[in-house]
TrEMBL record, chain A:
Listed CDD domains: EcfT
Topology of this chain in the membrane: Multi-pass membrane protein
Keyword annotations of the record: Membrane, Transmembrane, Transmembrane helix
InterPro entries: ABC/ECF_trnsptr_transmembrane
Keyword match Aminoacyl-tRNA synthetase: no
Protein name in UniProt: ABC transporter permease
Gene Ontology CC, one term: plasma membrane
Signal peptide extent: none
Cell division in keyword set: no
Main location: membrane
TM ranges: 25-55, 67-87, 122-140, 248-265
UniProtKB/TrEMBL annotation, chain B:
Family per record: Belongs to the UPF0397 family.
Membrane topology: Multi-pass membrane protein
NCBIfam families per the UniProt record, alphabetical: PRK13661.1
Name listed for the protein in its UniProt record: UPF0397 protein IV87_GL001143
Species classification: Bacteria, Bacillati, Bacillota, Bacilli, Lactobacillales
Main location: membrane
Key words of the record: Cell membrane, Membrane, Transmembrane, Transmembrane helix
Cellular localisation: Cell membrane
Amino acid sequence: MNNNVLIGYKQRDNFVDRLTGTTKLIGLIALSVIGMVSFDTRFLLVLTICSLALFRLSGIKFREVSFILSFITAFSVLNLIAVYVFGPQYGVHLYGTEHVIWQGVGPYNLTWEQLFYEFNLFLKYIFTVPLALVFLMTTNPSEFSSSLNRIGISYRISYAVSLALRYIPDVQNDYRQISKAQQARGNEISRKGKLTHRVKAAAQILLPLIFTSLDRIETISQAMELRRFGKLKKRSWYAEKPMKRNDFLALLVIALVVLVGIYLFRVNAGRFYDPFR
Amino acid sequence: MNKKQGISVRTVVAIGIGTAIFFVLMRYIPIPTGVPDTNINLAYGFLALMGAIFGPIAGGLIAFLGHMFNDLTWGEPWWTWIVADGIYGILFGLTRKYLNIENGDLTKRKLVLFNVYQVLIAILVWGIIAPTGDVLVYSEPASKVYLQGITSVICNALSVGILGTILLVAYARTRSKKGGLKKES
């Protein structure tokens, strides 16, 4: 079940669901990029809270995503620990001051600067999660490609994206079938097997998987060629939705958030908000 | 983009299906290395094959889109590594002319040179571009991201060196050589 998150689209009929894919796509890219660059804690906090609110609004049930959330939390925590292990003084280096909370061994003490820096990182890790999940679970895959086309990406590439989304479940199915068949022949690929066995068994699954898919590429491209795909400069989309008032409002809000983010670079004279000064 | 018609239909489909496979490989059969967020990815062996068959546009987009979808389903699009992946795919695509695998013309010498090239681009992309991007954009401690980078260099070079080579050889065998037909006397 948790394997199908990418195609977890369900009609939900609420505010977020009714926005066009274009709006959601622009929103996701713009917000994740500004959040990636900014190190202003206040800005990141507001972003996190807003994206959580959006998650609420979208009507996605918590249990639909709980599996993913536990994984993300584990990864983020591991990453934060790694950051501390490799750069225990990095916060001090960034902010240029040192407020020691606890004096440890060698460079491994605990400073407010380090904690604050890692808190920023944590916010950066998590604020995109609700946004990405909302995007994936409320955007119709075929509408997604029409919105890529609308923001100026060539329709051939947009169509390739739509093909990818269409064929991910098929490839998954193929993969499972081949893997079951190999397991029936005694090839162990689960954690129980030895590493060398697992690698060998994985290769035995991959070869048939990849070669049937290469055949599939030929079949599909011939079918598309027969239907004169790519002969004209433009293409219309069945799933395209017209932009409505709410879309423009949402885009306006997104633009404002991005502008505030950029304005904060000015205020902070750089990307970092420094409460220690 | 060749000709004025843009990329061919076959490339479009290759990008679509390639992305789907890349995504599935990256997502469901990663072999963890112990360094956070760094896995041995079988997807890169596959990417080497797709680059060699379909060229730089397909290679770049397959890696870029596949990695992006994978990150999105985890909720954390890590743009620096996604872009690095795109570059990696483009670099694999550049081997198409030289390997000429479509005509089944794959010699030992070509395979050796291909492997030298793939190690070099792994170092360039995962050892330099991706971690430097992390330091500049995400402002993470250099030692941590370079450790992740070096681990990725090793993992990806291994994945391409073993699986990629096997796939290239297997694919070349299914193609008939140009001028392979001989007139019987």
